[in-house]
Amino acid sequence: MRIAIVGAGLAGLSAARVLSDAGLEPVVFDKARGPGGRIVSKRTPYAGVDLGTQYFTARDGEFRAAVDDWREAGVLASWPVTPRVLPEGQPARAQARLVAVPRMSALARHMAEGLDVRCGVQVREITREASAWSIQDRHGDSLGTFDGVLLTAPAPQAQSLLAEPSPRLAARAVEAPMKPCWAAGLVLDEPLNLAFDAGFPSSGPLGWVARLGARPQRPQTPEIWTLHATDAWSEANIEWSEDAVGEYLTQAFAELTRRRPSVSDRFVHRWRFARSRRALAEPAGYLEHDQLLCAGDWVVDGRVEGAWRSGRAAARRLISLAAGRADPDAE
Question: Taking every annotated instance into account, which residue ranges of this chain make up the domain Amine oxidase (predicted)?
Fold first, then answer.
C-alpha cells in the first residue's frame, strides 16, 4: 500500500517511519530544500543558525522514549538554560528544554534516514481517481497514484489542497488558524557579554531572543543571536521586506539590551505559518475522510510533541485501513 505524505516536518516524518516499519510504502513530499518543517537551521558561513523552532519539551511517555533514542543516536541534548523575562530579569518557567545537535535540522535528517523523502517538490493538487489518489506538482506533472494520502502541512496550506477532494476537512483546517513569525539571526563583531543567554521580552516587537553559542555543540564565536518577533508585530508587518525587518528588529534588540551591537552579518526569515493560534485538540490525533488524512501540531495541541504524536496516530490508522483492504471481512 503506497501512502503519499505531504509535508516533511515532525508529523510527516514520524508517520513515514511507522508506515515503513509496518511494511507500507510511504513517499514524503516537501517544497523545502530539506526535511524538518519549522525544525530547521539556516546554513551560513559561520554555523547553522536556528531560526525556526527554538526548543521543545517531552511530556508523554511514548515521546520521552523517542527522546531517549535520539539522545543515544547523538542528535538530541538538553539545553540547561533559564530564560529571563526581559528587561526585568526574572527567570521564566522552569522546564526541561531539548534541542537537536549540532543544529536543529539534525533531528529531521536523522528521522528521514532510509525513508523516501523528496524535497523541493510542491504538491498542487490531490484528486480521487477510481480507488486511488492522484497527486500533481505545481507544474501539473503527475507525482504518482497512491492508496492513501496524509497531509501534515500547516493548516492554511492543507486547506488549499483539501478544498476540492474534501470540503469537510478543508472546513476543519479553517478552524485552526496559524500565527506568523519574523525571525532574524544577528552575527556580531564583538560579544555583548550580557547577563542572560535567552529571554522573553515583556514588551515591544520582540518575543524571544537567544544566544546561539549557549546551546549545546554550537560555536561560541562569532557571537550570534536569534531574534523572534511577536505574533502581533509579525502579523501587522508580514509584507515588510527582509531588510526592513532586519533593521527594525536589530534596533529593538539594541534597545532591549541597552547596547549597540556591531552587526557584521544578518539573516532574516519569514514564517507565514509558525504556530497554531487555536489547535483543534482532535481526540483521535488526526482528521480523516476516505483514506485522506490530516495530522500535525494544528490538529492536536500546537506543540512539537503533539505533531509527533499526531503523525504516528494517523500512520496507525492508515495501517488499520491497509489491513482492511487486505482482508475485506476483517471489519
Answer: 100-319
